[in-house]
Each structure stands twice: as structure tokens, then as C-alpha cells.
Here is the input.
Amino acid sequence: MIERAHLRILREIERRGSLTAAAGALNLTQSALSHTMKKLEQGSGATLWTREGRLLRLTQAGEYLLREANRLLPQLERIDELLRQYAEGEKGTLNIGMECHPCYQWLLRVVEPFLAQWPGVEVDVKQRFQFGGMAALFNHEIDVLVTPDPIVREGIRFEPVFPYEQMLIVGDESPLRGLDHIEPQQLSDQVLYTYPVDTERLDIYQQFLLPAHCAPGKHKVLEATEIILQMVAANRGVATLPQWLVEEYARTLPIHSVRLGREGIHKQIHLGVRSQDAENLHVRTFIELAGSSSMP
Here is the structure.
């Protein structure tokens, strides 16, 4: 029965002081305004105002409805504004899934300018070993998937962000230090540290060891990049990481990089999004910032 138009009419009458001025502010004719309020009075059975010459005097029912108008309309207008912000990508949460464990330093370079550009949008990051990235993207648990291994699926669009080379990381005392490159057999007596990812998705296995029918001396799993690097720096074993990340940590840790095979293992970071979301404004902004924030 009560519509927002009724509340707005009462508020404008109070603000403008007359039916004519209120009608002008609302882009209505005075007769249309009066007709709208008359229908409300007839439907509710309550008289909202009385005329005293040219003046309008609100009844108790009218005073009550005016108080509610002043209370409810700002809330409804705030809802309108928030819905507009959601529709235009100015508000919400950008959920990012990570299938690239060592990419957090790079991600920080993207998130900082993104948050500055979209102050109403929150950012949440979920790690790969807690869920399947593609399933999460299909199920709308995440909006963007950061992965070096894109899987072609209908309804998902992947965009390349930056290339990198996967390198073997060794400590100061490693016999592999200083070599131009290594062959798979040279890891047969080494402890290999990796992230908790299935071997089917580990490049060191799929592109280096298994094709040569080789295996490391031991394979140990650790979750944190910093701990993996500390173990390598302590000469407890070796690991594989992107070259740009090695260069960053080598400033403070005694670690060194060696190419995997004569040609090396070359990869590309991709961002995956649902096709229908690819032109979403804040998703598009994130992709563009990611493309301009490549690591050295």
C-alpha cells in the first residue's frame, strides 16, 4: 500500500512548503501529486492533511508518515547507491584463488594499486592447497584464478600476465652451485623440497624428472616459501622457484639458481576468470594492473 513515492511527496512538501513546489521538485504536475496522495488516503482510510486556506496542515497520521519518510528514505537511498556501486563494480569483494604458491610478492604489487583505485572493493585471497582452483572458479567461490597451468574449459577465459623461468635453488655448499645447468640424474642424491601440490602439477617432476625416468633422493613437502628457502640456505636440500623470486630472496639469503636442463623450464602466469565476468570493471582493472606489474 505504502510506496516510496508517497514518502518522497511528504518529504518534499515539508522541504518546499507547498504542493506546487513539491510537485516541481519531483517532476510531477500538482494534480498528479494530489491524485497520488488521495489514492493513499482512500486506501488507508486515514486523512494525511487538511487545508487551511492556502496552507496545508498535516494530521497526526500525516505527521507520523512524515517522520517515517525522514527515517526510511535515507536508508532506501543508501541501498540504491550501494546497488549502483555493485552494478558498476565500485563495491563488493574480489576473491582471488592462488595456484601459484610463490606469487604472493607479485600479488602485493597488484593489490596495492587496485585497492587505491577501488576503495569500495575488498580483496580476499585463497590458497591452492585448500581447494581446487578451477572448481572454485566454476562454483563462484573465487572471481580470479592465478595459475601457471591454465586448463581450457568452456566458460573460462585465461589471460597471460607474465613469463618466467623455473630454476633450481641451491645453497652455498651445494655441489650443484655454479653449474650452468643440471641434468635430471644430478638430483638422484638430493633432498627436494616442494609445496604441497600433487606431483602431476609439479613442473620439476612433469617437465624434468619423469621424462628422464629419474627421481630425487628424497621428496619433502613444506607449505611456506620462507621455510623452504631457509632449508635450502642451510644446505638441507634443493627446491625450484621462479627466477624473479630467487633474485629477490638472494639479497638476504645465501642461495643460488641453476637452470633445469640446457633449455630450462619456461612458464607463464595466467589469470583465469569466468567469461561472463571478463568485462566486469573491477575484474578488468585487476587484470590490467596485473599485466603492468610483471616481476623482473
About this structure: The chain has a mean pLDDT of 89. The chain has three domains: 4-87, 92-162+268-291, 165-266. The longest strand covers residues 156-171.
